[in-house]
């Protein structure tokens, strides 16, 4: 039976086993299932100790005894061997194989590993066979206070509004301790403030930092540095501690009013200051920051005429005085304004809003101003028949400065390019310079300037609109050249034309200034007269009356019975009844198109030729085309360049012909012997060949030199070395008959040539 004696560093006076009395270590009995206890259980093959050992963590370096293994088989025999297996066996824990003592060889840290599971067994030293079943036990590392508290998230930052009440929460800090939180007080922390009193306090359990002093003012001090300590062991002596810092910032509230740097301001501005231009700046300072320091400015007194306004500069927080209306030194020389600066944002703690006011005195400085017209725009009228130099009207301007400078008047010629008007430089009278015509320009808009004599840079402008009044100086006339029609079968007195025109002095005039033309008889015929030119005198009612003679063109037309105009041309009589000119043109176009198609068809039929190439595969004359011109032979050098067809290899000397009999044999086939137009090709070639051979002066017709070059590298050799009977070669051409049907005719021709030579 294997017995394990447990050596525990904790003093547990429960009992001592006889094997461990000399070590003075406790043994946990079986009936105590608590931590640090050993439990005995009976197995079939002997006693097995399933034990949990408790061992405090230590830092070394000397080995520490954990326990001892002992078996009933160990009677002092040297053949018994104790072995240890499991977590840390051989590295962290070692066993004496003879005595069974277990030692911890390395540093044990509960924070790295809290327990180890191992197996002990007794084996035979010689055979390594187990003598008893293995026994499993656990070594639990007991925690000691070896880790100080740490603030993982530190240093901290917090904020709280200024003037906060005592107890107002600022922030919370958190410290952690790596020791066992369930064993002892190693991980029980207590918080305290080392620096930062009496302004702040901390709850020693929850670590919440709170305000401890009332009335803290950000404008006096904005930032505080607080040092917090966390101590384990419940804060008792011997505990470990850690510290962190907390930066507490007081945030601003609106607890300070704006304040002008001085109670009164004075500005001097010229009276010619432009509208919207700044005339001065005031500023109210605020000790607060951000939105709490922003102020809005307003004028609450001294500006009855609503001449000024004040706006806030968003960048500098200044109040800018601006002009809303023109200044007039002659009417008012100074202004006394009351300006107020008010905080935009009110605070719920302190109330508000806060404000401050100041007095602003504005002194107007006289400036040389341009003359001022009595009106900004003038309206005059004049008849179009007014004489040259007629006075149309007058403008007036006055220098309102104290000097009252004289004024000179001019016309801006950019607005009167034709120089239609003149103006008197002294009194501003506008006169006519050129004749007017209302029908050309009814309105004339000119610009008149007034300039100080003393200072020519002071100029003012006014618009003068001149309306040209009409007189009866134009005779009435037709608006356009009118044309009326008259039915040749119409009745007398019937209205055939109704044309609009200018006013006429005629009994037949209508209210819309139109006239009616009546036919006096029914004898109008287009064959006799197609067009009538009717002169009409038109007179207006003006003073004096004006008149003009206008011509009305009346065309005689053919009409239907209901008076609808059908044709107004004389040539319409020659057309068939019921057909218009457009219909006749369409019919004529169709006839011409048909004639063109017929002519083209006949032409193509006449010029159609029979094909020149015989498509019969059995005809030996394939690819032979008959020409009237048989070529000029070697003397013909105009048709094409023969040099490009000559063999470059034969330039320097004569290359003998090399005939190669083809390997493929072709079956002979019967061909046709009659050529085009009934001419026998064989006979024709034989005759031509005989003539060429026996006529030394005639050029050769076969042009054999043209085909002397057939390309290099051909395995078939040359096929163009055709010789006539005048050649010195005695070559036999009987082999041509063996080359197949395509070369049979050629062989017969050469055979004929050989026979002619022999004869």
UniProtKB/TrEMBL annotation:
It holds the Pfam family CADH_Y-type_LIR. Keywords: Calcium, Cell adhesion, Cell junction, Cell membrane, Glycoprotein, Membrane, Metal-binding, Repeat, Signal, Transmembrane, Transmembrane helix. It comes from the Eukaryota. SMART domains: CA. It is a single-pass type I membrane protein. It is found in: Cell junction, Adherens junction; Cell membrane. GO terms for biological process: adherens junction organization; calcium-dependent cell-cell adhesion via plasma membrane cell adhesion molecules; cell migration; cell morphogenesis; cell-cell adhesion mediated by cadherin; cell-cell junction assembly; homophilic cell adhesion via plasma membrane adhesion molecules; morphogenesis of an epithelium. The keyword Chloroplast does not apply. One of its GO terms (cellular component) is catenin complex. The chain crosses the membrane at residues 573-602. GO terms for molecular function: beta-catenin binding; cadherin binding; calcium ion binding. Coiled coil: none annotated. Residues 1-19 form the signal peptide. Residues 71-151, 152-260, 261-373, 374-478, 508-573 form the Cadherin domain. InterPro entries: Cadherin, Cadherin-like_dom, Cadherin-like_sf, Cadherin_CS, Cadherin_Y-type_LIR, Catenin-bd_sf. Cadherins are calcium-dependent cell adhesion proteins. This is Cadherin 8. It comes from Cyprinus carpio.
